[in-house]
Amino acid sequence: MTGAGAIAGGSKPRLPRGVRLKYDNARGEWLLLAPERILKADAIAVEILKRCDGRATVAEIAAELAALYSADRARVEADIEALLSQLAAKRMVDL
Amino acid sequence: MSETAAKLGPPAGILAELTHRCPLGCPYCSNPLKLEAREDELDTRAWQRVFTQGAAIGVLQVHLSGGEPAARPDLAQIVAHCAKKGLYTNLITSGIGLTQARVNELAEAGLDHVQLSIQDSEPASSDAIAGYAGAFARKEAAAEWVERAGLPLTVNAVIHRANISRASKMVELAVKLGARRVEVAHTQYYGWAMLNRAALMPSLEEAQAAIAEVEALKEKLSGVIVIDHVVPDYHASFPKPCMGGWAKSIINITPSGKALPCHAAEVIPDLVFWNVRDHALEDIWRNSPAFNAFRGVEWMREPCRSCPRKAIDFGGCRCQAFALTGNASEADPVCHLSPHHAKVAQIAQQTGVHPAPAYRYRTMKTREPVG
């Protein structure tokens, strides 16, 4: 099992084909659509997942979000790792 | 409008049975015994209209199923239309009828995901279960084309007496075929599977051994493949939350356009199903008598009515309640609180009789009048 903290800062997360972040007008919320799965994405998850384009590294995403929200970078990095390791175990993100 | 209808959210998915035609004859097929004929199928434009209406009312995912959806020459056109409307498309296929060129065409049309069925991990047994020589090899080829096209793959394996000793081998095969996800589903007894129940149902010991093996693999293969495990409910104490609640998230549409709250719902007598040829999808979702028949909890009797689990499992499966008790408003008799639970236990005890009876293969021909 991939635990939190196991993701390298240099890893470039990407949503694979078959996993899509979508704002749903009918429900007024962000959703992550995946094979036979629909997950609700909260505001933090949306900001992280929007940046998972296979080019930005985890460290870069953390730095950007920490600056954007004037948040503690280590804390942001921990949030990112927790989300991505959870999704990676479901094969919903490529690291 | 009742309180339930007022609070009704949009449907999350459409299960579109594009056709009931299929080259395979799997004896546990989830289609109804009375299969719909080609000449009654909705045409391309009718399906496109349904998906346009679905997208407008909040449908998120479309499961293109059958029969074998690849039997429809307009499959890529339908996928492209769904993609244009922002719908997530999932192709549920046996692999037969696909070619590399067709898989590429579907990928280019915007297909999001492919679910491929396998019958067994051994070719000879696999072909015997499907009633189709060479099916196994064609499925292996289909999986490779899917992977080459860059499409994500789920493998679906239905477990029953003839393959239950190879449940973990089937998971290993799914990994080998490049799947990110595998559904290991013990047979549920409806339609063709009910007709073949004696030939399909494993013994309790076999079921328990297979369940333990697959559960162990979940942990071992975490991060490699996701295992979704549907365990046999005849051996359970609580019923499954069938469809996540009747008419709560899915609309099933048959090849001829009948809208059902679940694919087996037609076995329940006296339900009135509306057709997408006559009614808009939103009207069906809100007002179709069949959809409202068992929505919410108002229809429930005891032991469901006062049960603390009624919002967890919704009384189980209506079709199974009808099949085993003769009344679709009863608790699913899989529940240990059902006064009919002894019947389920009795059926589960009768399994494992040797030799297994021959399959009655799924076929359109024997059930349709000639001419």
**Greatest interface and its participating residue counts:** A-B, 21 and 26 residues
* Oligomer class: heterodimer
Order of helices and strands of chain A: EEEHHH
Largest sheet of chain B: 9 strands, mixed
Look at the helices and sheets of chain A and give the structural class.
alpha+beta
> What helical percentage do the residues of chain A reach?
25-40%
What's the Cα radius of gyration of chain A?
13 Å
- Number of E-state strands of chain B: 9
How many runs of DSSP E, i.e. beta strands of chain A? Answer: 3
Q: On the 0-100 scale, what is the average pLDDT of chain B?
A: 93
Strand content bin of chain B = 5-15%
Task: Walk across the major sheet of chain B and give the strand order.
Answer: 7-6-5-4-3-2-1-8-9
Query: What's the main sheet of chain A like?
Result: 3 strands, antiparallel
Q: Terminal Cα separation of chain A, in Å?
A: 14 Å
Tell me what you see in this structure:
The complex is a heterodimer of chains A (95) and B (371). Chain A contains three helices and three strands. Chain A has 95 residues and is of the alpha+beta class. In chain A, a hairpin with a 2-residue loop joins strand 2 (29-34) and strand 3. Residues 1-5 of chain A have low confidence and may be disordered. Chain B is of the alpha/beta class and 371 residues long. Helix content of chain B is 35%, strand content 12%. Chain B is built from 15 helices and nine strands. Chains A and B meet through strand 1 of A and loops of B.
